[in-house]
Amino acid sequence: MTAAKEARQGNGHIPDLIGASVPKIDGTEKVIGAAVYTDDIQFGPRLLYARILRSPHPHAKIVSIDTSKAMALPGVKAVVTGADFPGFIGLYLQDRHIFCRDRVRYIGDPVAGVAASTEEIAEQALGLIAVEYEPLEGVFDPEIGAQPGAPLIHPDLADYHVKPFIFPRANSNVSNHFKIRKGDVEAAWGDCKAVIERTYRIPQVQHVPLETHIAIAEVTQDNKVTLHASTQSPFAQRNLIAMALGISQSDVRVVGGAIGGGFGAKAGVTMEALAVAIAQKVKGFPVKLRLTREEEFYTTFVRQGLIIKLKIGCDQDGKLLAMQNTMYWDGGAYTEYGVNVTRAAGYSSSGPYEIPNVKTDSYCVYTNHPVGGPFRGFGMPEMHTGIEQAIDELAHEIGLDPVDFRRINCLKTGSALVTGSKMHPTGLPKAIEAVAQAIDWGVESKASAPNKRRGKGIALMWKAPAMPPNPGSSAWVEFSEDGTIIVGVGGQDLGQGAFTIAAQIAAAGLGVPYDWVRVATPLDTKYSPYEWQTVASRITWSMGNAVLAAARDARQQVLELVAEAWDEKIEDLDIIEGRVVSYRSEESISLQDIVIYGLPKEGDSGWRGGPIRGQGKFMPTYVTGLDPETGQGERAVVHYTTGAQAVEVEVDMDTGKVEVIRGSAAFDLGKAINPELAKAQVEGGFVQGLSTALFEELILKDGVLQNPSFVDYRIATTADTPRQLATILVEEPQDDGPFGARGVGEHPMVPTIAAIANAIYDAIGLRISAPPYLSEKVYMAMHAAGLVT
Amino acid sequence: MSTHQINLTINGVAETLTVPSHMTLLQMLRDHLAYTGTKNGCAAGECGACTVMLNGEPVNSCMVLAPEVDGAELVTVEGLAHDSQLDPIQQAILETGGVQCGFCTPGVLISSRALLDRNPNPSEDEIRQALLGNLCRCTGYFRIIEAVQQAAQMPATVEV
Fold it and tell me: What is the rounded average pLDDT for all residues in chain A?
C-alpha cells in the first residue's frame, strides 16, 4: 500500500467529514414548509375520519355495548368494538387488545371506534354508542398495587405471551420483577461508616411532541394494509400489527413521513392499530385517526411514575460499600413496553458507580393509570432522580464534597459493573471534571437580589441502549447517473439528525462530498431496508454501522470495476471527492456514468460493470442473558453512554420560584460524527429535563387526569431557557461504533432533575418531596422548615 | 350551514373563497387549500405551531375564523422564501441549527419575522418575549434565540 493511501485509510484514520458539523440534510425542506408530515398527505374526497370512544372509568367490566344507533347515523361508515378483534398486541408482553373486550383499565382505554365521512359526524356517533359498565376497584399506587390482595388488573397475566427475559408474577399486578443479588448487602451495612435511607417519588409525565399521534390506514379488498403514521418504528409496527391481525408482515406496508417529535411516544404501537382495525371494516377507504392534544396527554404512552427506596452506605473514606434499591414502577394499565423499562432500570440500578454489594428489586406494577412506555431516557431519568440525590445526601453525611464523592466512586474503565462484567473504556471521570470546572464548582456566586439564594448541584448518569439482545439494522447505497448517491435507511429522523448522520457516514465511507448524498424518504417498509426501531439512542451506532458497511460495499464494487478496467490492484486505488484515483498510475476517473453504465472494454469489445448498489447490515451478537435470580451475566448490554451535568439555581425566597441560571453538561459519545448536532441534543435534553424538574406532572386523582392541556400542563418556554449552558463532548471511542461513535440522544435529560434538586438543596438546605419543584411547593417547604415566615 | 365569500391574499396571491362560518383559518389553510406548511399542534391557541402573519401581526390561525380574514393579507411559512431565496430568518435558523423535528419551525419563523419587521434589532429579552407563545420540545430554544439574533444582523432580502 502506498504511503498516501496508508495515510488516508490506515488503522484509526477518520475521514475529515466525520466530526464536521455539516448542515442538516432535511433542514431546508423544514424551513420552507415543504417537509411532508403525515397529516400533510392529501388523500382526496374518499378519506374517512375516525374517532375513538374511550372508557370513562379507570377500572370496570364491560357488560354490554350497543352500537346500533351510532351505525344508523347518516355519514357513519363503520363502528368497531373489541368483539371484532380477539388478538393481542404488545412488544415485550402481549397484554392488550386493540380495542377493549371484557374490561377497561384506565380512563381513555379504547372501547369502540367509528369511521365517518367527517370528523364531526364520527364524534357525534360516539355519543350514540351505549356502553354498560360494572365499575371495579382500582389501583392508583404501584407500591400498594404490588402487595398481595390488591385488586387484580390483569387476572390472566400468567397466560400472556412474554419475551424470555421478562418475569411476570402470576396472580399479582407485578408484570416484571427484575432482581440483582450481588455480594452480601446485609453483611456490608456493618462495615459502613455512613448509611442513609431515602424514598423518592417521581410522577408520570408526558412526552408532548408538538405533533400529536396520527395514522391513516387503508385495507384493500384483497387484505393488503397500508399505514401512514407519525412513527419511530415503521418495522416494529408492521410486525406487531401483522401479528395482531394474523396476516403476513409482507402484506402490511407502513410509511413514515416527517415526524413532529417522538421522544419515545411514537415507538412501538399505540393508536396506529386502532386506525388499521377500523379500516378493516371499510375496505378500500383510507381512514384517518388524529389524536387531539387532550387525547395525546393520556391515551398514548406516558413516562412511568416511580417510587424508589434507596439504602446506601459507604466507609469512612467515602467508598461506596452497599446499595439496596427497591423500585415500584407505576406501569399504568398495560405494560407491554414498560416491562423493559423496569428491566433496564434493574440492570443499571447501581447508577454509574462501582458498588461491591447490591440488592435490587425492580417491580413493574399495573395500575389504573395511563399506559407507561418508552420515554427519552427509558427509566433512567426517573431512577437517577433518586440515586443522584441519595448519593449527594450520603456525601454530605460522610462530610465529603459531592464532586469529590463522585470522583471516588464513579465508574472508570475496567470497574466492576452491577451485573458482574467490567466497564468498557469510559470518559465519565473526564465528564465530571469538565462540568465541575465549567460551573466554577466550589466558588460561590452572588445572588441577583437580596431575597434570592443561589446554589449549585451536580449529577451523573449512565445509560445503555435498552432493547432485545439482537436488534438489527440494514442499509443500502445506490448511485444516480451523475455519481451522487441515495442512501436507504430504516431508522427515522426525529429531529435528532439521523438522516444527516447517515449521509455523512455514507459520504465518508464511499469517498464522495457530503452534498452528493440524498436519503431515501419517506421511510417505507416496502422499500426501505429493515431497522428494528428508532429508539434507545442506538441509531448513530447501529444504523451508522450498517450505512458504513453499505458504503464500503459500494466502494469495493467501484474499485473492482476500475481495477479490472485499468489492470491495477484494488489496493492502489481510492475514491476521493467522487473520483476514482490510482496512487500507482496517478490516473483518475469521475464516478459519473461508470457507476450506472459501467466501463467499455478495449477495442469496442463489450462492457463491464453495471448499476452499483452497496448493501450493509449490523446486529450485535454478543449480548448474553442474565441469571433471573441474581441479575448476573457475561454481558448485559451493548455499551453504556455516561455523562455529568451541573447547574446553578437561584431560589426566590419570597415566591419559591426556582430559576436555573446556568448549566454545564458533558457526555461521552465515543466520537461526535456531527458535533453541532450532538450539542443540540444535549441542549434540548437539558431543557426537557429542566421542564420535568420544574413544571411537569400528570396530575391524577383516582385515575382522572386533571391537566390535559398546555395551559394546565406547562412545558418550558423561551422564558425558562438558561442564559448559559456549556456543552462538552467527551470522546472515548466505542470499539464497535462507526468511527468510534455511540449514542447520546436520550442521555442529556437523565441527570437534570437530580442536578437541580441538589442545587436547590445547596441553596436552601431543603429537599423537596418530589418533582416538579413548583414555586408553591418550594415555598411551602421553606415555610414548613421555618426558612420563611 | 351558512357560508361567506371572502377575498384575501395568501403569500401575495389573490384568492376568492367560500368558507363556512365555523371554519377556522387553520382549517381553511390546511384542509381547504392544502397550505400544509402551517401546523396544527393543539387547535386551542396554546402551542403556536399554527402561527401565520395576518396583516403583519402573528396570530394563532386556529383561533381565527376564516370569515374574519376577508380583505386580509396573509403570510404563511410557504411565503417566506421567494425565487429560491430564503428569508434571513430561514437562513439563520439553518445556520444556528435551530431546527430539529421542524414541527414548531413554521410558527417560530413567522413569529420571528413579525418581530424583526417591527423591531429590527431586538434584545435577547425581546426575542424571548416574542417567542413565548411558540412551544418547542426539541431544541431548548437556545439555537432559535440565536437565529433571531443572527437574522437581525443580516440584510433583509424580502419584503413581506
Answer: 97
Residue of A nearest to B79 (CA): A32
- Tell me the C-alpha to C-alpha distance, in Å, between residue A340 and each of A200, A563, B12: 21, 50, 53
Asked if A709 is an interface residue toward chain B (Cβ–Cβ < 8 A), one would say: yes
Calculate helix-pair angle for A752-764, A775-784, nearest 10 degrees: 40
Gap between the Cα atoms of A705 and A699, Å rounded: 6
Q: How far is A752 from chain B (nearest CA, A)?
A: 13
Q: How far is A434 from chain B (nearest CA, A)?
A: 21
For testing the chain A interface, which of B137, B139, B144 should be mutated: the one with the most A CBs within 10 Å?
B137
Mean predicted confidence (pLDDT) in A770-780? 98
* Cβ pair A495:B100 closer than 8 A: yes
Nine-digit cell string for A320: 461506596
For A713, the closest chain B residue by CA position comes to B46
Neighbours of A144 (CB within 10 A): 16
Give me the interface pTM, i.e. the ipTM.
0.98
Report the Cα–Cα distance between both ends of chain B, in Å, rounded: 35
Which residues in chain B have Cβ-Cβ distances shorter than 8 Å to A292? 43
**A755: CB partners within 8 A, 6+ apart:** A388, A457, A458, A459, A645, A646, A647, A663
Preferred mutation among B99, B101, B144 to probe A, highest tally of A CBs within 10 A: B101
Give all strands (DSSP E) within A567-638, no chain letters.
573-576, 579-582, 588-590, 599-600, 607-608, 613-618
Contacts of A35 in chain B (CB under 8 A): 102
Q: Is the pLDDT of residue A730 over 50?
A: yes
Closest-CA residue to B5 (of B69, B59, B74, B63): B69
Residue of B nearest to A500 (CA): B100
Distances in Å between the Cα of B87 and the Cα atoms of A159, B13, B48, B148, B154 are: 60, 18, 20, 12, 10
Strand ranges, E, within A539-619: 573-576, 579-582, 588-590, 599-600, 607-608, 613-618
Show Cβ contacts of residue A539 under 8 Å, excluding neighbours closer than 6 positions: A473, A491, A496, A498, A501, A531, A743, A745
pTM for this entry:
0.97
Strand A320-332 and strand A357-366: pairing?
A: parallel
Residue A644: alpha-carbon gap to chain centroid:
19
Radius of gyration of chain A (CA): 28
Give per-residue pLDDT as tens, B35-86: 999 999 999 999 999 999 999 999 999 999 999 999 999 999 999 999 999 9
Residue A8 pLDDT more than 90?
no
Distance of CA A42 to the CA centre of its chain: 30
Residues A86, A97: Cα–Cα separation, whole Å: 7
Inter-chain contact B103–A26, Cβ cutoff 8 Å? no
Between helix A380-398 and helix A752-764 the angle, nearest 10°, is 30
Mean pLDDT in residue range A306-327: 98
B99:A23 CB<8 A: no
Q: Is A520 on the interface with B (CB under 8 A)?
A: no
Phi-psi region at B3: left, alpha or beta (left = phi > 0; alpha = psi -120 to 50)? beta
Who among A27, A212, A721 is closest to B94 (CB)?
A27
